[in-house]
Amino acid sequence: MSLTRLRSLAGRVVPALLVAQAVLLPLQPASAAAHVTHPCRSVAGCGPVVVAPVSQAAPDEGDCTSPEPVVCLIRRETPQQREVSRDQRIDYLTLLEDMERTECAMRAEGRSEEDIARTLVQMRNDAKDIVRAGMTPEQVAELEARNQKKYGNPLGPTADQLYLKYGSWEKVVEAATRSSAAVDHELGLEFAHCPCEVLQAA
């Protein structure tokens, strides 16, 4: 799915699902992953993969033990809300897979490591923006406040900030395509990286 189309869907469809989630999103078993298809994942078992059902625990209103703010938000959700969050996370991980495909294409074109890094960091921030279109205003405000305080940018670090942190554009590329395993695990997901030969053949 293209970035433009997903942005459009996020703006039109996800908010409506949040309002009517109890009716439109019944609980699904882990096998429901079959409704999310992607050439890379279906052929080589990589990209976003459902590995466990969504937690049916009641919303946790106590102190969160996870250092990951998004995990804390998920634990405060109802099971139905977690189903929505997982769908959003799958969309986000699919965009990360698209980033890896872009990286492979740029390398094949002989583009510089800095060009690749800057492109991927921008794509990652665009992906965050798309996924947050489906969150509540309170959730978005909490995440943006954290990023604003830490990076001076509500969507997260810029390419230059990541370069200062990691010291090379190669490491910035690695960071840009890295998924939070803690968040993925909380929603019963894993993200498997695809080698370029698989991505380019899909």
Structure, explained:
Helix content is 62%, strand content 4%. It is mainly alpha-helical and 202 residues long. Helix 6 runs antiparallel to helix 7 (113-132). The two termini are 13 Å apart.
Question: What secondary-structure arrangement, pairings included, does this model have?
Answer:
Elements: H1 3-12, H2 14-19, H3 21-24, H4 39-44, E1 47-50, H5 69-75, H6 79-108, H7 113-132, H8 137-151, H9 159-166, H10 169-176, H11 181-186, E2 189-192, H12 196-201
Antiparallel strand pairs: 1-2
| Quaternary structure | single chain
- Tell me the radius of gyration: 17 Å
Note the main sheet.
2 strands, antiparallel
Helix content: 55-70%
Which structural class do the helices and strands define?
mainly alpha
Count of alpha and pi helical runs: 12
pLDDT below 50 for ≥5 consecutive residues: which ranges? 1-43
Mean pLDDT: 78
Shape: globular
Distance between the termini: 13 Å
Q: Approximately how much beta-strand content do the residues carry?
A: under 5%
Number of strands: 2
Q: Reading side by side through the largest sheet, how are the strands ordered?
A: 1-2
Order of helices and strands: HHHHEHHHHHHHEH
